[in-house]
Amino acid sequence: MAALNSLFDYFSPILDLEELEKDLVTTRRPDLKAKIIDDLTSVYTYTNIQRAKLLLKDQRDFLKRKPNPDLELNFHLNSAFIENQFYNYPLAEHHLKKAMVIIEEMGDLKKQTEIYIDYAGICINLEKFEDTLYFLEKAEKHLEAYPDPILSGRIIARKGSINLYYGEYDEYTKAIELLLKAEQEINNASQNLTLKDYYFLTLVHSGLGHIYTRLNDLEKSIKNYNRVLEICEITGMKTRLSYHYVNIGKCYIGMDEIDNAEKSFRQAIQIKDMISNESKASAYGNLGYCHYLKDDFDEALKMYERAEHIYKTKVERNAKNFSVIEVWKAKLFMAKNERALAEKHFISAYEFAQIAKDYQQLSEIAMSIAQLYYKNGDYKNAYEYQVFYSQVKERDNENILNKRALELEVKYEAEKRAQEAKMLRLQATSLQLKALRAQMNPHFMYNALNSIQNYITSKEVKDAAKYLAKFAKLMRQSLDYSDLEIISLEKEKEFLEDYLFINQKLRFRDKLRYKITMADEIEEDIIGVPTMIVQPYVENAIEHGLRTKDGGLVQVDFKLKDDYTILCTVQDNGIGRKRAKEIKEKEKTYLNHRSKGTSITEDRLRLLHNSRFVEKVFVFTSDVTNGTEEVKGTKVEILIPIKEIPLKQS
Fold first, then answer.
1. Which domain does 581 fall in, by range?
2. Between 544 and 570, whose confidence is greater?
3. Is residue 235 predicted with pLDDT exceeding 60?
4. Across the strands, what pairs with 514?
């Protein structure tokens, strides 16, 4: 309880709701009023949906007049949460899509990760399980660069929810494991928890309650539902309290503790919240069932009628609930030996089950009707409903098989994606090691060291020390970077400058020139790129194009192709590809090293771009002709994926 008790210690200094409400009334500045609304809805979305909806309407009107990306983002996130609470999943999805567009423009990766997790939750509710897995993978990828235990816990909670959907014992076991792990991740986080974090904890314990109910471990189920109530009471999140009390009441019915069940259902009815109506209807219906079990038929009918009155506001969505209540009524009249009324309500229950397309319910009702007719001696109708039972039961079994097939497909896709990710990581590691081995041409290192030795023997100690330090730095960078998958573009540029400087001074004795340029819009200190991805092409330009030529020039240019890709151009004024190939044929051993190095780099690029198509090209090589037939050099264009720099490097 220590973590829960700290909640208001965290919020109270920041948000005094009464003061903010007063400020909202007295403030005349529209921008300040919009900010106050934003602060209020950040709490009311979880604690007072009625008030939040009114404020969001005002916020929408303000944003129409004066767009503000930060406020608009929060507007869509809060609206999505509320629509989800009202079961308006498509509208919630609409708001989250809007939020994703805004956040991708902002570039806030933590918030982007959070939205991906939220969107995955909507996809679960819409039963779009492939999309769920896709967005959870995107979220996990971001967390590799920016670890966050709370967001990690939320991802694990979503995965637990997917397993909960499958409905098999093994999957329930896995779901329990994931949900408990999610709770641990969130509770063990060093930062203060927000209302949204506590909301995820309610999802965890509600999910556990649901699983234990399915496993008929009702005591554990009640324990977890009570934990949800505890969190909701302390944090003020009362939106789904009625729903949780109903779940507890159902567990008590299963344990034959009817008095406790009645108490829970009455508590559900007492909750005052605009989205609790359907939960209250369920509470009334179940309360009626409790009276039925006590043979208090008149009171049971009153409760059933109250439930139906609430359900009538949305008949289509509540067809299954109507069917259940009609079955209960039918059984009640059966107990009173009023078979005509029992028949009437069974038929009505059957019709509602057809609307709901609930074939399991239909089959059970058909069997009940058949038995009723049989007892009345109406063998013809008894036979017809027995036939209906067989047909509907077959359809129900078919649906179960189809659902199971879909579940297996989703599981297969999830496992396949996980295996693919694992294989890609292994391949990337292997290629990185190969790239290191192929990175530095041994002839380059021999020539550099030989030149330094010449400075030493010529007693040019100052130059020898300077170049030896430069060479040592380059070797150290090469080794250090081999352990990293991503470095900043700034470090990649520095590495290239050191490499070209040594070539210029030690190997070509100032007969080589080089130039590295960076487009103004590139923030090289915060943009991440794959380690040592450009150097093989620079070395290729030197070895193939410039080794046999005086006055060589290497130009390296970086610019943004789009938000996700950098276009790097490596151009030389060398002998061209045709002449280089002829030389290569004569010096196979010497130049084979470079061919292998660029080949490995291209394989790395395919993996780093997450390309599933081996034939997709990320490196383009062409001759430089300047409008004439004569070859003036070679140009290599490299599409480099922009990556996030891990926190430990920053």
1. 440-649
2. 570
3. yes
4. 554
DSSP string of 162-187?
HHHHH--HHHHHHHHHHHHHHHHHHH
Query: Alpha-carbon Rg of the chain, whole angstroms?
Result: 34
Distance CA 282, CA 185 (A): 34
- The per-residue pLDDT for 216 is 92
Give the list of residues 6+ apart from residue 220 with CB closer than 8 angstroms, or none: 208, 212
Alpha carbons within 13 angstroms on the beta-carbon side of residue 450 total: 10
Residue 591 covered by a domain:
yes
Give the tokens for residue 194: 């927000």
Residue 442 or 229, more confident: 229
The better pLDDT of the pair 629, 405 is held by 629
The predicted model gives 83-100 an average pLDDT of 93
The CATH number that applies at residue 498 is 3.30.565.10
Nearest one of 640, 572, 569, 570 to 602, comparing CA atoms: 640
Asked whether the beta carbons of 647 and 147 are under 8 A apart, the reply is yes
Question: Rounded distance, CA 258 to CA 371, Å?
Answer: 28
Residues in contact with 213: Cβ distance below 8 Å, sequence separation at least 6, in sequence order: 221, 247, 250, 251, 254
Distance from C-alpha of 263 to C-alpha of 253, rounded to nearest angstrom: 11
Orientation of helix 277-293 relative to helix 241-254, angle to 10°? 20
Do the beta carbons of residue 310 and residue 277 sit within 8 Å? yes
pTM: 0.64
Residue 535: Cβ within 10 Å count:
23
**How many whole angstroms separate alpha carbon 126 and alpha carbon 447?**
64
Per-residue confidence (pLDDT) for residue 457, from 0 to 100: 83
How many structural domains compose the chain? 1
In a domain, 231, yes or no: no
In the predicted structure, residue 4 carries a pLDDT above the cut 80:
no
In this model, does residue 507 exceed pLDDT 60?
A: yes
Q: What mean pLDDT is predicted for residues 389-406?
A: 69
Residue 597 lies in a domain: yes
Q: How far is residue 649's CA from residue 525's CA, in Å, rounded to a whole number? A: 11
Lowest mean pLDDT: which of 347-356, 475-484, 592-601? 592-601
Pair type for strands 486-488 and 619-624: unpaired
Nearest in space to 411 (alpha carbons), one of 181, 133, 203, 153: 133
Q: Is residue 129 part of a domain?
A: no
pLDDT in tens, 115-129: 999 999 999 999 888
Among positive and negative, which fits the CA dihedral 152, 157, 161, 164?
positive
Distance CA 411, CA 417 (A): 10
End-to-end CA distance of the chain: 36
Q: What is the largest distance, in Å, between two alpha-carbon atoms of the chain?
A: 120
